[in-house]
Every structure is written in structure tokens, then in C-alpha cells.
Amino acid sequence: MNLGISVIIPTYNEVKHIANCLKSLLNQTLKPTEIIVVDDGSSDDTMPEIQRLQKTLPKIKLFKQPHQGPGTARNLGSRQAGGGILVFVDADMEFDQGFLQQLTLPIFKNRAIGTWSGSEYVKNWHNPWARCWNYNQNRSDARMVGDSQGQKKVFRAILKSEFEKVKGFDIIGYTDDWTLASKLGVEPKTTYAKFYHNNPSSLTAVFTQARWIGKRQYKLGWFGTLITIMRANAGFSVLIGLYKSFRYFSPQFCLFKLVYDLGITWGAITSLFGEKY
Questions:
Q1: Residues 152-193: pLDDT tens digits?
Q2: For domain 5-197, is the CATH number 1.25.40.10?
Q3: Which residues, at least 6 apart from 223, have a Cβ–Cβ distance to it below 8 Å?
């Protein structure tokens, strides 16, 4: 069996980050067999930037699709992959040199069908809005991984044979990358492969990301969507915003919370009227 590593990256308007992401993947101690980028209908210069990088970095393969979300893009990239191990990352991530080696070691040693990493950090911690994103999730420092069981179900690396066995990710929106664990009936093995993620760094980016999160599929269906809309009302936003502004010594947080909850509400309302993920 070919146990080469195929790294799969969905992209959507990531011109600011994609070059650093790709270069850090190509600078690994354990080299990937290929890097498959699937552009999800970007409207900025993401595609031209990737095409420019391809001229000198032959391991990069580029595919594109109409805007359908990262889950669909990951599934498309997986169908094109030649490696026996699939690694799923985002375009706004960067990686320590030993990331791929540490992430895939349990798979190569036949100790796991897939892995995740508990060593994820905010790359742009200097940005106040990026810090507010963590504060909103009750994380007081640059660590991205808390006690959420959902995060621990995200396969960063998995055998392609196992991925194909369950026909890839379910397309449910924001948490589509959590769906493999429930379908396989097994959680990924923990590693501490170190990597970094850029949080939204402007109020526009905060709103856009929150709007996407708000469109996700809720456990209680339309009733869960209504509960989300009620919980994200402006009154609660101000109260929580003021509390966390003092808790984290972050005066920007109150404005952040209003914008974030507006995005959640907007996304949830539009999902009720048929605008999906």
C-alpha cells in the first residue's frame, strides 16, 4: 500500500495566507508526496497566487469548484489524492517543520487509522480581534484547543482507505470536519504536532466567519436555529461583551461580541430561508 502523504487544502479568498501555508508544508522534515489545493470559488487573487507558486513548486496541484464550502472541497481533493495518508489543513495555517512527521507517526507505526493534534496556536495573537476570537471561546491565551470534545474528533490525518470507507465528510457546514469520527466509530489518536492558525483579524472577517458558523446544521433542526437566534440577541451580546471586556482586559471585546453575534444571527436567519452552508 502506498503510504505517501497527500495534503489537502480547501481555499476561499485566502490570498493573504496561502503562500505561507504552502511554503511551510514544503519545508517539512517529512516531505509530502503532493499538496492538493481546491479553490472553493474565490473572488480575490487566491487562484493567481497559487498558479504563480506552482511555477517553482511542482508538488502543488490545483483544482477548483463553485463556492460550496470546505467539506465539498476536501472531498474533491481526496478523490484526486494519490497518497495512502490524507492530511487535512486550512489555507490560513502554518506549520512547524516536524508537523507532518509527528502527525503521521502513529499511522506509519500501525497504531492508529488517523490522528489529530492538540498543539494548535493563534498565529496572529498580536491582533486585538484575533485575541477576541479566543476570548469569545473562553480561551485566555494563544492556544486554539480547549476541552471541546468536538475538536478532538477532527481527523487531521487519516488513511485514505478508511476515509473512502465512509465516503468522506458529510456536508453539514461549519462542523463537517467532525463527521468522520461518528461515521467510523473511532476517534483520532492524539499527537502534539505543532501548528498555527490565523484568527479573523478585522471586524469584517469576524462577521463573515460568524455568518458562516450561523448557517451550520443544528441538532434540533429549525428549532435549534431559533434558539441560536434568541441567544445571539443584542441584549445578551452587550452583557457578555461588557463582562468579558473586564475579564480579559480587552475593551474591544464588547464591539467584537456585537459584530460576532450579528453574523451568527444573520447566518441562522438566512439558513431558515434556504440559504445553506
A1: 789 999 999 999 999 999 998 888 999 999 999 999 999 999
A2: no
A3: none
